[in-house]
Amino acid sequence: MTTAKQVVVVGGGVIGVSAATHLRRDGADVVLVTEGELADGASGRSLAWLNSAGSRSAAYHALRLAGIDRYRTLFAADPSRDWLRFDGGLHWATESTVEARHRAEVAHGYESHLLTPDEVAVREPGIAAAAVTGPAVHNPGEGWVSLPHLIEHLAAEFTGRGGRIVTGAGRAHVVVENGAATGVTTKNGERFAADAVVLACGAATSAVVAELGVSIPDASPLAMLVLTEPAGQRVNSVLNTPRVALRPNPGGTLALDHSWYEDRITETADGECSIDESVVKELVAEAAALLSEDVALTAASWKLGRKPIPGDGEPVFGELTEVPGCFVGFTHSGATLGLIAGELLSYEIRTGARHPMLEPFRPDRFRP
């Protein structure tokens, strides 16, 4: 690996903007190129729950904890921000599932408590006790972030430091010369030269690297995020329940998602997605049923698209062996890993050294 002074970042989501900002902090000359607008892809429709809940590999758990740590540093700089909070998380499902999850979390030192429905109601008065059908896991160290607000915050720093953002560029393609990445071209033919390229294209990453003869399997499902009108009732925790996941959102609104309606989302050949409004109303009704007060909860907007998930479920970070100078950032946990991923990718690009925390997540693992 060689150090880079000029870098082009492709992707206007949290990983792309984070990488661009960290690179600029480190002194690189950076251009960020995005197909449409900032945060108009998966980052604009993510529940953005900051966590390392459940069971996962030790390496993935450590990376997620480092990600949460960077958010805590950002939170400490200004605890008054309404788009980044650490008020804990609550999860309930079947009793056996909840208890297994709790055991797994305790086993790797993740703060986890089993609560009865009555204890949940005390911890989170905004929840109707009757909605909690059994024991719940409480993770007091978890939080949430509104990624569009975070991206706006990082983009302001990036441009303030002299970075350049090119929106509406259309699909970008990596330029390869003498076997190495030397920049990107955009749909309108504009070329941006670079010593290194970062691909942070979300669910499109597999298709972009396929043009380079590289295979990174993709398992990105269709997904939806619903934002409600102001709810008139405060819920502080992130809730993960059998029929709806819910978190607070700036302006007194709520963000909602789940997976039970995935097969009811349709997608056209050009990637346009749609869903019957009755499904949106059903999801909102599930959320309203969780609340302790009789609230007329209504949807203000909803967004649909692919949720980025690599084929084996694990993150993909680092330089492509087949195309030196081309780096990839592709992960399901884009919110939790957003800040740390940008930091570690910047470290590798600027120093030429491989960071040990990224070793288990190299794109090379998919090579035959």
From TrEMBL:
<dbReference type="InterPro" id="IPR036188">
    <property type="entry name" value="FAD/NAD-bd_sf"/>
</dbReference>
<dbReference type="GO" id="GO:0005737">
    <property type="term" value="C:cytoplasm"/>
</dbReference>
<dbReference type="Pfam" id="PF01266">
    <property type="entry name" value="DAO"/>
</dbReference>
<feature type="domain" description="FAD dependent oxidoreductase">
    <location>
        <begin position="7"/>
        <end position="347"/>
    </location>
</feature>
<dbReference type="InterPro" id="IPR006076">
    <property type="entry name" value="FAD-dep_OxRdtase"/>
</dbReference>
<protein>
    <submittedName>
        <fullName>D-amino acid oxidase</fullName>
    </submittedName>
</protein>
<dbReference type="GO" id="GO:0016491">
    <property type="term" value="F:oxidoreductase activity"/>
</dbReference>
<keyword id="KW-0560">Oxidoreductase</keyword>
